[in-house]
Amino acid sequence: MSTTVHTDRKTRRPSRSVIISAWAVPILVVGQFAMLAVIPVALVLNGTLRNARFRALRWWAVALAAAYATPLVLWAVGPDRAPSLSKDMDPIFAALIVAAAVAFIAAFHVIRGRAPEKAR
């Protein structure tokens, strides 16, 4: 008889994709690829809302999504919009998105640091 050791991959994978996506948002916005940042913002929001372990991060994820959605909607409904979201986005909105992403990342690491250590 052999003993199978089950690794807890399902619980680790969402946290990895959420934090990588959260790091990608400010990089894409600062790098003038704001339209592509919709994918990591959606992954952060989806991963945070679907995982019960991230209950404390839900408000941070919603704040990040709202900070990103505001210039996106203004760009989409604007009468004379620029060819890219990055060119049309006010620097204040870019700073707000970066700040929201950094706040989410900081909250993620603080909450993860408080959680009881499990065998890795």
Note down, in words, how this protein is organized:
- The chain has 120 residues and is mainly alpha-helical.
- The chain is 69% helix and 0% strand.
- Helix 1 packs antiparallel against helix 5 and helix 2 runs antiparallel to helix 3.
- The model has no long low-confidence stretch (mean pLDDT 85).
Question: In terms of topology, how is this protein built?
Answer:
Elements: H1 9-30, H2 38-50, H3 58-77, H4 85-88, H5 91-114
Helix pairs in contact: 1-2, 1-5, 2-3, 3-5
Write a brief caption for the model:
With 120 residues, the protein is mostly helical. It has helices at residues 9-30, 38-50, 58-77, 85-88, 91-114. It contains five helices and no strands.
Q: What is the 3D shape?
A: elongated
The residue-averaged pLDDT reads 85
Ends apart, CA distance between termini: 25 Å
Q: pLDDT below 50 for ≥5 consecutive residues: which ranges?
A: none
Q: What share of residues are in beta strands? A: under 5%
Task: Name the helix and strand elements from N-terminus to C-terminus, one letter apiece.
Answer: HHHHH
Category from helices, strands and their pairing: mainly alpha
Number of strands: 0
Largest sheet: none
Helix fraction bin: 55-70%
What count of helical segments does DSSP give? 5
> What is the rounded Rg?
17 Å
